[in-house]
């Protein structure tokens, strides 16, 4: 694979951009090597500046439920461009998207658009604190909620639930407002609610944790969590930035039947443009300015191009309702991948949910054979994944450049693409 041009651009970029990239995982630190600089993409294919073409299973980290450059989204966006691309006023496009969302998702009574998942989380936490008059937020170790300070925390070394900063620049004081509980440990969750319940404004959770691998939780996890929160008078925030409109139209709330008080969206709802949203109970959303005293604003919020792209994406998803087709495809793919692992004598389990899947390499040492929290990921997983990543990249297949990120299937992925992944993985594993 020739990549002189990517290498040249990376060298130039490193001089003026931290680490050469605008979001850390893009730098390939997790897998080694030089990141490919992509110049265009269509359908399931990326093309880099050296003219290499890749079958894409990263799909911009989740927004592209319809694949790259879906023709309907493209046409809608082209139309929108001719109307102007930012007004800074009230406009009808976000209203149409907000109505589509609220009319089809009963627990989403009111919604506010922002520009990213991070912003959505930040605002939802502020609303929760205002509405409850409490300051602490409970999160789970292994869930990611964007880069707002209070969520960049990890379990501390002392009292299990006390958090410490997980990024330089996050103050210990901010971290101390966050309680961190392990995934897959209802006993500890219960204990933390007993100790701190009356101080907890909200518990925030990725209802399917999908940012440290795909950490499938047992079915009682969400119901028990919601029951404990309710008893303590704490709100439940579902961070559905990945799962919203992806695992089902109504996200994991629909699938699990557990109704959150507040919910955050991102990724799919912008169809690849920068959009986030938070919403939920009307009485909570009425705290938001100018209806209420919780300040939150945005120069480019509800940008008409981004709203149009999101609307075209969601309308197509709703019309075609291809959730079960995608789920069946992922199931078949996962079985195939596990088979080629077996054939090559390399332990491989493919954890999956709807159109998300995560290849776990190495021996999983849990009783039920699943990785349910980050500490259960086999030690050898990262090293094997890195080698697999580069072997596939050389053969024109692009997985997420990190062993702890999930893969995404889109409507554009056909059986031939899935077969190609299985075959290529088979020969890569045989050579390991
Ligand atoms: C991606 C993601 C975020 C952050 O969204 P950005 O748009 O990257 O700021 C937050 N929560 C979850 C669950 C995510 O997957």
Describe the structure.
This protein has 432 residues and is of the alpha/beta class. The chain has 2 domains: 4-69 and 322-431, Aspartate Aminotransferase, domain 1; 71-320, Aspartate Aminotransferase, domain 2. Helices cover 37% and strands 16% of the residues. A 7-stranded mixed β-sheet has the order 4-12-11-10-9-5-8, with helices on both faces. A 4-stranded mixed β-sheet has the order 1-2-3-15. A hairpin with a 4-residue loop joins β2 (45-48) and β3 (53-56). The radius of gyration is 21 Å and the shape is globular. The protein starts with a helix and ends with a helix. 49% of the residues are buried. The model has no long low-confidence stretch (mean pLDDT 97). It binds pyridoxal-5'-phosphate. Pyridoxal-5'-phosphate (PLP) is lined by residues 116-118, 121, 144-146, 206, 211, 239, 241-242, 266, 276.
What's the gist of this structure?
With 432 residues, the chain is α/β, with parallel strands linked by helices. It contains 13 helices and 16 strands.
């Amino acid at each position: 694979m020739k990549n002189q041009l990517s290498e040249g651009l990376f060298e130039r970029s490193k001089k003026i951009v931290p680490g050469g990239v605008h979001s850390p995982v893009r730098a390939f630190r997790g897998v080694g090597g030089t990141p490919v600089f992509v110049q265009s993409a269509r359908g399931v294919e990326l093309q880099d500046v050296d003219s290499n073409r890749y079958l894409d299973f990263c799909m911009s980290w989740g927004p592209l439920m319809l694949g790259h450059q879906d023709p309907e989204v493209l046409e809608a966006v082209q139309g929108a461009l001719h109307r102007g691309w930012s007004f800074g006023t009230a406009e009808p496009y976000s209203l149409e998207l907000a109505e589509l969302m609220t009319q089809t998702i009963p627990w989403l009574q009111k919604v506010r658009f922002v520009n990213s998942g991070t912003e959505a989380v930040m605002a939802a936490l502020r609303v929760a604190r205002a509405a409850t008059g409490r300051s602490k937020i409970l999160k789970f170790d292994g869930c990611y909620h964007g880069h707002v300070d209070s969520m960049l925390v990890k379990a501390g070394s002392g009292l299990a639930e006390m958090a410490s900063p997980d990024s330089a620049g996050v103050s210990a004081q901010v971290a101390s407002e966050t309680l961190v509980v392990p995934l897959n440990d209802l006993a500890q969750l219960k204990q933390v609610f007993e100790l701190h319940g009356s101080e907890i404004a909200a518990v925030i959770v990725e209802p399917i944790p999908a940012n440290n691998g795909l950490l499938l939780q047992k079915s009682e996890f969400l119901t028990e969590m919601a029951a404990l929160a309710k008893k303590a008078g704490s709100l439940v925030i579902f961070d559905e930035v990945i799962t919203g409109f992806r695992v089902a139209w109504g996200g994991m709330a629909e699938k699990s039947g557990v109704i959150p008080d507040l919910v955050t969206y991102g990724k799919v709802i912008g169809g690849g443009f920068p959009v986030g949203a938070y919403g939920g109970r009307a009485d909570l959303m009425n705290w938001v300015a100018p209806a209420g005293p919780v300040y939150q604003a945005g120069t480019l919020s509800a940008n008409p191009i981004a709203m149009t792209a999101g609307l075209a994406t969601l309308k197509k998803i709703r019309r075609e309702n291809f959730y079960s087709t995608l789920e069946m495809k992922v199931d078949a793919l996962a079985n195939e991948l596990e088979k080629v692992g077996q054939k090559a004598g390399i332990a491989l389990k493919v954890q999956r949910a709807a159109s998300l899947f995560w290849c776990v390499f190495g021996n999983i040492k849990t009783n039920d054979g699943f990785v349910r929290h980050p500490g259960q990921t086999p030690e050898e997983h990262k090293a094997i994944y890195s080698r697999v990543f580069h072997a596939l990249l050389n053969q024109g297949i692009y997985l997420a450049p990190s062993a702890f990120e999930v893969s995404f299937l889109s409507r554009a992925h056909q059986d031939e693409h899935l077969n190609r992944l299985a075959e290529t993985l088979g020969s890569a594993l045989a050579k390991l």
